[in-house]
Write a structure and sequence with these properties.
By secondary structure, this protein is mainly alpha-helical. The protein has two domains: about 70 residues; about 40 residues. The protein is elongated, with a radius of gyration of 29 Å.
Length: about 120
């Protein structure tokens, strides 16, 4: 059994610079979208998407970015393990839900009708 002590002293200075650079790239892309108003809309959106990709790439170079990417990869692996219901199971479950809703709707409608009649009888109206 191997015990590893992890020191979590927060992000390093270089990681902070990388994250700030990623944010600056994203903000610059959004600012360019508005400042370059004379350019065609497709070009402006291409700039925003390019800066989004560049900012994401720079952010992934930090320790937090690598941790996030490992989380994404782990999530994809777990998602592949999910046993999804068949079409028939989905249709049957949907039918059960609709029937339950219909039964509850009728129950509350009857209850409302009875309580309304009782209230009218008690108040003489």
């Amino acid at each position: 059994m191997t015990d590893q002590a992890q020191t979590s002293s927060g992000p390093g200075a270089l990681d902070t610079v990388k994250l700030l650079a990623a944010i600056a790239i994203l903000v610059g892309g959004i600012a360019a979208f508005y400042l370059l108003g004379t350019y065609p809309l497709a070009v402006r959106w291409a700039i925003v998407l390019a800066t989004l990709g560049a900012g994401f790439f720079v952010a992934l170079q930090s320790a937090q970015g690598r941790t996030f990417w490992q989380f994404v990869q782990g999530s994809r692996i777990e998602l592949r393990k999910v046993v999804w219901p068949t079409r028939q199971e989905s249709l049957q479950t949907t039918l059960v839900v609709f029937v339950a809703i219909l039964v509850m709707a009728v129950f509350f409608w009857v209850l409302d009708w009875i309580l309304g009649a009782l209230t009218r009888a008690l108040t003489g109206g």
